[in-house]
Amino acid sequence: MKSILLILLSGSLLMGNPYNKDVTSLDAIISTLYEVISGEKGEARDWDRFRFLFHESGTLRSVGKTKEGIVDTRAMTPDDYINRAEPYLVGNGFFEREIGRRTETYRHVTHVFSTYDSRNSATDKKPFARGINSIQLMYDNNRWWIISILWNGETESDPLPQKYLRFKK
Questions:
Q1: How does pLDDT run across 29-70, given as a tens digit for each residue?
Q2: The CATH number of domain 21-164 is 3.10.450.50
């Protein structure tokens, strides 16, 4: 009896969360990821919504070169990312959108290569950056979770291959 009551209670708590719609499908969680970090200059982001997308062990990592020219990565928790990125995102405006996707799934694990472009305003004609977000997700039979995001920006010497500029689900 206690087990049934606990299941009903936890289900009703989940149903009442306004962010539940964001994790019901792969498309929903990916589009929410882009939506929640995007906004015009001075526009606050909904960081609780951002945090809700991530598993408790979730990480974000960017790939870049050190001052010595060594390729390296820096791991961040969602809160580390918020502290690092918020001043830029809100101070300059930032819109990131998905312009291509490749998806692989096996059982509860999904890997998404999500190609993006970035602009400071929704009205900007051209992006100032493009790259790929490598997103690892898990479906636990109730919802999707972001386990990790690793991203790498396009460079002049390493342009994005055409195969990553289209959607292939």
A1: 999 999 999 999 999 999 999 999 999 999 999 998 889 999
A2: yes
